Structure formats: C-alpha cells, structure tokens
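Folding follows sequence. Below is one example:
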Amino acid sequence: MTEQPPPPGPGFGPPPPQYAPAPPAQPPYGYAPVPNGYAPVPPQPAPAPAGPEFLAVDKRNAVVVDASGVVFELSGLTAEFRWPEIRGVHYKASPDGKALMVAVVHVDGRFYECVVEARPRARLQEWFPQLAWVLGHYRPMG
C-alpha cells in the first residue's frame, strides 16, 4: 500500500482568478504592439581599419594622427579633427628647437595648433620622419 502525499495547501499552484494579473491592454489603432522582453541590440559600427599611427606626447599636450584623423590634447582638453573636415596638416620645430608644432587647417579655413615638447631634444628628429610617413599614408600629395 502506497501513501499518497497530501494535496497542496493554500499558497501553492496558480493564483485564483481575482488575483491574476490583468491581460495587457491592446495598443491604440495604428501602433504596433509592445514586444515582450528587451529590444534587439543595434549593430555596432565597425572599427576603423588599422593603419599607421603617430603619437607625440609631453606632460600636458599630445598629438595623435591615425586612420580617423588628427587629435590634439591640450592640458586635458581634446580636439578631434576627422579627415573629411581637414584641409591640411602642417608641422615644424618650434623656434627654440625644443618642441614639435602641429597645425590643422579646417575646411572652413580655421586654424588649430598644438605644441608638444620633445624631451630629450633628439626625439624631435625622430618625430619628423614618423609624422611625415603617417601623414603621407592618409593624405598623399597629388
């Protein structure tokens, strides 16, 4: 003889009809019903293709040139210039020969400049061919 377990007491099983949640209301005419769950994740933009990069940095300022354009960091403030909005990029040594001066000319004619100290001073001579090569890659002459 097998014993049957006692039937479940109150509090088990589905709630009585008076305590069940109300069915969702139908959306007004012309609107799509709200889907249950989370919205689909939108596709993420593809990362910029890898290419050569140039970086010059000192205690306060930095210049970055890469596939997206030119970025200046000036005492914690960042200015980004994308290639389509750049008319030209110029660079030279500072008058005392201790820093790299890089200028971006915007398509509307505005001019932006960043100065990065080269320590040791010989680093400036390393930066010039690197910067020339990277700029030539993204902005070939002709």
Observations:
- DSSP finds one helix and seven strands in the chain.
- The radius of gyration is 32 Å.
- Residues 54-138 form a domain with the PH-domain like fold (CATH 2.30.29).
